[in-house]
Amino acid sequence: SSVSLTKNLTPQVSWTSSEAQPAKVEYQIDDKSYKQAGTAASGSFTIPAGEIGTSGVHTIRVKMTDKAGNVSDPVGTRYHVDVDAPVFSSLEMTKSSFLFPSANRAPVITWEIEDAAMKNVYYSVGDGESVRVSSGAEGSVTLPETVWGNTENGKFVISVYAEDAAGNMCEAETLNYYLKSVENPEEYVPKD
Description:
Layout: E1 3-6, E2 12-16, E3 24-29, E4 35-38, E5 42-46, E6 56-65, E7 75-81, E8 87-93, E9 108-114, E10 118-125, E11 131-134, E12 138-142, E13 154-164, E14 173-179
Parallel strand pairs: 1-7
Antiparallel strand pairs: 2-5, 3-4, 3-6, 6-7, 8-9, 9-12, 10-11, 10-13, 13-14
């Protein structure tokens, strides 16, 4: 028995038997009825779409019947299906706004993600390349000052997204960051 993690809902089942010519080879998903898969001593069969329909651990069993009517013991494997993308339960960044831009050129992004099998967390700034920063469902990253290039002021859209071990990718969550250089600190001193 083995365990695999996948988003594939139409797995291929393979078998090999010492029986020269079985009368039939059947498969079963979980506790459903057995269905015919073939009649060869060795072969493979793709489980049709819809038979494994949800995320979770499923059991796939195969049994053979010979021409005399003898039935083998079922041989099974556990098949872990994950078709659900990760979900951000929390995503925050160092505060900034249009009215109150930040001079912090190394802001911090923190996140919490709901997914039991997290694989990667990525971010990108504007149209820049995606950067892998973590594999944890909870974490943070300090953006390097180099992500802003030579820009001193402006609004930046930062996309953050996550991928789980089955390859499900969530939609990117976006954060806006307003950067302002503080070359003239007296501008920011309140005046009466």
